Amino acid sequence: MNEVLSRVCAAFAAAMMVAACGGEGSPSPASPSSSQPARVALSGIVREAGTKRALPGARLVVTSGPDAGAAAVADGDGAFVFPSLSAGPIDLEGRKPGYLAAKFTSASVRPDVVVDVALYAIPPRDAAGVPATARCNDTSWSWSQAPARGCAARGGVATAYVRAR
After folding, report:
1. CA dihedral of residues 54, 56, 62, 68 (deg, nearest 10)
2. How far apart are CA 136 and CA 156, in angstroms?
3. Which of 23, 53, 58, 94 is at 20 to 30 A from 73, Cα to Cα?
4. For the whole model, what pTM was predicted?
5. What is the pLDDT of residues 48-99, one digit of tens each?
């Protein structure tokens, strides 16, 4: 966990340093009379809801605001960074195959904000087409009608799923 946070902080610091120093690909500092909006980095970690394990390769996309279309991909530790976004509210979407999309509306983009993105795994179905009832802490699935019992030997229940009737 500390290693992941260190990587996120390092990426954030590097992005801010490049922007502050006028590095290649960064906007040059605005003059006091400029009407350009402030640019800030937005970082975070993508995890599976329940198990809290990192989800490398998850894709995050800004879906509204002046930076709509900007994208970032979570690294091997689930960490991501948008190095330069306009300050203010945005809509953000996180996706990974096998998981439900996470949508954030009016997420705040300002200095020192870290976004924790939780994606819910889509329960698999058994041979009869019945969906799993729980995700266990060891990342296995249970079809037991009593999820706590079904996951007892597998570290307990991470996420229980309710069947639609």
Report:
1. 170
2. 6
3. 23
4. 0.72
5. 999 999 999 999 999 998 999 999 999 999 999 999 999 989 999 999 999 9
